[in-house]
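Dear colleagues,

As part of the handover before I leave the project, I'm documenting each prediction I ran so the next person doesn't have to rerun anything. This entry is a single chain, and its sequence is reproduced below.
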Amino acid sequence: MDEQEKSSHILIVDDTPENIQLLGMILKKEGYRTTVALDGLQAIKIIDKISPDLILLDVMMPVMDGFDTCRYLKTDDKTKNIPIIFLTAKSDKEDIVRGFEAGAVDYVTKPFQKEELLARVKTHLKLKYSEKALQKALEKSRRRADKISALLACSKAVLEYRNFEDAAKKIFYICSEIIGTTAGYVALLSEEKEKNEVLFLEEGDRPCKVDPELPMPVRGLRAEAYRSSQPVYENNFSNSKWVKYLPQGHVILDNVMFVPLVIEGETVGVIGIANKPGGFNDDDACLASAFGEYAAISLVNAKNMEALKESEKECWIAKDDAEKANLAKSEFLARMSHEIRTPMNAIIGMTDLTLQSDPSPEHRENLRTVKESARHLLDILNDILDFSKIEAGRLELEHKDFDLDDLLRSVIRTFKVQTDKKGLFLKLEQAENLPKYVKGDPVRIRQILVNLIGNAFKFTKSGGITMKASVRETSETSETSGISILFSVTDTGIGIPKDRQDAVFESFSQAACSISGKYGGTGLGLSICRQLTGLLGGQIWIQSELGEGSTFFFTAVFQPGDKSRILADSKEENHPIPDSPEPSLKVLLAEDNPVNALLATSFLTRLGHTAVTAADGKEALEALKREPFELIFMDVEMPVMDGLEATLRIRDGEAGDENRHIPVIAMTAHALTEFREKCESAGMNDFVTKPVDFNNLNTIIRRNISISPTVSESRTEPEKKPLLLDKNRLRRLRDDDAFIRKMYGIFNESVRNIAEKLRQSVISNDIKDILFHAHSIKSPCGTIGAESCHDLAEQLEKAARNGDSDQIKPIFEKLEHDLLKVMSLTSELSKI
């Protein structure tokens, strides 16, 4: 028998003195404490005072029998868990069952057998203490689970709240609830470390008349927490030495605990909690310390977040400054391009005209030198512009199907005459596994190869150059999708020193300072090649020995090409030129530069056309009103009215309805992509960059006059820009003009109503309706080939689905702009 069991207190309830004496003797001999009651009522009164561990209850008693007494005790929360053993002279099963139903745990029959009595008493005391221990363990486990849950809630608060005051408030209330306090606050140490700056105050059920915004001096028990960096508490606060430090009007405190917020060994604030019923203990202090640590972490996070925001702000300012600088640079380059290309147009054009006038051999050689020098200047300018576009992220790659074999051979042909003249060999080697047709950007691949072969030619005096291409073997785990092709250009030239090989790919850098003076160049070519190969999904590197030549390698990733599409494009581009002479056209030339105007007029006259000049856009409009023209060459930048404005007015019918669809070819010294896009948006049909290659002028004219109904009887449709309308989309579905006209008419009727509803939805910012109408407008646009409108409707639908209100309006404005153009075109086509 353990000590707890020996000290058990047993209440004997019996009205027979002999039974009382016998039971008392047996139990006391075993070490139990006993108390006696002579009936049920007396037992109830005694139990209210002593709370026994077990009751021996006689069944048959006067006043209140054992069954009634047992039932009464089992209805009281204070006594219902006390085990009751009935003492009975009856062994009738019915009475035994009745006793168990009343709430007894066992019974002992009279006359008593000592061994039986003690065995039953011991058994039920052990059961009681075991159950009590289990309940205590369960309560401890529940308490531990509550603590863990509270700590997890604090951890979540640290992650969820970026503002320290919000996080601290959440942590405070979690801490107060689990520890069981009703009042307190969170405060941070002031910069001078003399005062507490209270973030918030919880008064509980006792009002506090102290202004929480007033700083609290660091003194009293609070100062002990700052000094020790450990939780401190006082349970008899009103009688302690600390009470004198409370300011007048402070909430009444029964007890108080201060928990420090420690960061890197320094206490920077406290959590104060107060008025816990029964007072604090060391377990409370240990638990509260964990909450203090969470609050400290939250404070560090908040400070880091503030620093990050400040850093982000500085980054945005720097980014904005960089973008402004980059914009200024781009504007400067665009202006430089325009200013250089305008006179270069005249120089190259006049040189070509003079070369066609059968000059003397000496003059011809001089003119060729002038032309080559001018072309060299243009190459330098193009390098600078390419470099600028790549830096600004504005360089867009093509993704088209092309014949790789044909491209490689054309690059070789480009240099063949030069290498033969210099006595160098130029070879092309293609691996057997190299695909003939691929999809990618042929222009940029050619640009890289031409640059590398051009460099090799420049630095090679004897021997020659070999260009190779093969499929690069990649591992199965490679993240690169598509076909990776390895290109190389090997020369037998001067080579590059080891310590200069990395530098050749840097901007404005060459292998040696003397190279620029001896061989020429900007030092941008290889830098552009490196950035282009990165955009193409590859990389570039070099192997070279001084005096033994160099090999430049680069890779690019392609997709498999579609042979049928390449052949179709080739057939369209290389449409046979009729043997019959081209019709004589009346051309309007809008050009403010008199030299360029004279130059263009001379070439047009040589081609058999009649040219009328206008010095600005306003004069061009007046000329169109006076007399008919079949074609317009329109300079973009002119005084009074520029070419973009003039073209918009022509398309709006200001020069007469008959001129709405007259072909307009932009002539501009601007070479940046955005200017091409501006020209297309204004309604121009083609784009020619100055200096114009007038030898190709006939091709440019032929490409554009076929869209004019006044020139070609066989094609009466006005030209639609691919960006806006793919005119072949419906024809691919059904090659029937009547069907196509009908579809255009239906499109205009349906889309006009949807567009107006979409406009109203955007104005009212009704996201649900915007999503519905954007989806409704996307399908018919895709059906008729209105590609730009289809894509913009899809973007608008996505922005509405994501709730991106800032993007909705600008996307809609662009969609509405393009949609009006498409509807104008389809309206005209539906009438043809």
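Confidence is low (pLDDT under 50) at residues 475-479, 508-522, 572-581, 707-722. The CA atoms of residues 146 and 152 lie 10 Å apart.

All the best with the project,
I.
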